[in-house]
């Protein structure tokens, strides 16, 4: 698979941003009224809806070019969500495991994340050098840790998404644009 590209660093996202979860839940109701539910998904699919309040002409061209580069919803990319993009002090396990999967926490629900950077790893609170690949965090070469050590980490994570629907931008003033709302859907 080709290297994933990151969404351009445009910082004028509007305050109005939403996330919706989908679980592909199947519901069967028997004649007696008894209900049985199930899902075959281990993790939800998220739909992020957002827009850019103000774009310079350069940002407008960068946004429209990126949409074209990813061929609309065809090619997935990495999205650094402005609200949900980091974990601090997340407990990953013990030193006995030797490698740890990066995760995102929503309350008590935990799911893996596969694209992380700025990783800081700790054993019982003491910093360790670490490397990561596809969300798996490992000790850097030459680092050791006691098997009973509690492993925690801080990191920034990206969402793997694709566009869902069209991208529309509006010219509102001399060299000032804004985007209409657009949707990003997580992919695995």
In brief:
By secondary structure, the protein is mainly β. The chain contains one helix and 19 strands. It folds into two domains: 18-79 and 161-186, no CATH class; 86-157, no CATH class.
Q: What topology does this entry show?
A:
Elements (H helix, E strand, L loop, with lengths): L17 E5 L3 E4 L5 E4 L6 E6 L4 E2 H13 L7 E3 L6 E9 L4 E3 L1 E4 L2 E4 L3 E8 L2 E3 L1 E4 L2 E4 L10 E8 L1 E6 L4 E5 L2 E4 L2 E5 L2
Antiparallel strand pairs: 1-4, 2-3, 4-19, 5-18, 6-16, 7-15, 8-14, 9-10, 11-12, 11-15, 13-14, 16-19, 17-18
Number of helices: 1
- Radius of gyration over alpha carbons? 20 Å
**Main structural class:** mainly beta
The low-confidence parts are none
Describe this structure in words.
The chain has 2 domains: 18-79 and 161-186, no CATH class; 86-157, no CATH class. It has one helix spanning 57-69, and strands at 18-22, 26-29, 35-38, 45-50, 55-56, 77-79, 86-94, 99-101, 103-106, 109-112, 116-123, 126-128, 130-133, 136-139, 150-157, 159-164, 169-173, 176-179, 182-186. Helices cover 7% and strands 48% of the residues. Strands 1-4-19-16-6 form a 5-stranded antiparallel beta sheet, with no helix packed on it. It starts with 17 loop residues before the first strand and ends with a strand. It has 188 residues and is mostly beta strands. Strand 17 (169-173) and strand 18 form a beta hairpin. The mean pLDDT is 94.
